[in-house]
Every structure is written in C-alpha cells, then in structure tokens.
Amino acid sequence: MNKDELAGISLLEGLSDEKLTECANLFKTDDVLMGEMLTKEDDFGYSLVIIIRGSVAVRVGQDVVAELHAGDHFGEVSLIEHQKRNASVVALESCHVAKVMTWDFEKFLAVDPVIKERLDAAAAARHHD
Hints:
This protein is α+β, with helices and mostly antiparallel strands.
C-alpha cells in the first residue's frame, strides 16, 4: 500500500509523509465483494480496517446500526480492549480496504501518539452508540 491511499483518512490527518509511509508499510490491502462479511459479531478480532473505497453495514444481531464509507474505520474496540467483535460488518458494494493486523497494531500506534488518542476516542464513542 502507498501513503497516498492513506492521506485522506481522518484517523491519520495531520501526519507527515514519513509517518504516513510508516503506516502504509504496516497495512495490507484487500478487495471485498458486495455481500461479503468482513467481521462477524462475537468472533475474535485480529485487525483494524480502514475503508479506502466503498460502503459497509454494521450489524448488531440483525439490526443495521451504522453505515461506514470511504475514510471510516472499524475493529479498534476488539484490538484496544482485547474483546470479541461487538458487531458484524458486511460490504454493501465492492470495497477496497486496508487492514493492520493485531501483531502490527502496537507498531501502528507507536507511529504517532495522535493515532492512539483518536482510536481510544472512537472506541469509547462506539460504546455509547
């Protein structure tokens, strides 16, 4: 993955080109087909996912509780809090996503303190939704 794909992501807003390159080196990209499940509620979480292109539905049980689009991310709660997934995520259309795996997650957080601050805030907000 290259840093330009991450440049417009709000989670990484304000990072230098050098730090974006560090982040990009930790991510792996994947193409997901419409209807494909990216995460399953109550499964163990092994990745943080950023949507580069496309839209997904976030489901708790059978209820759609949110839609996420290009630039949004999910999966931080299970990685930060070491819990199982609190929702299922299904592609609403063909998507291009970037994932950082659990074994690289601490390296990702270490790139810049603002990343951890933003992910902690996002995780806390998801508990209130």
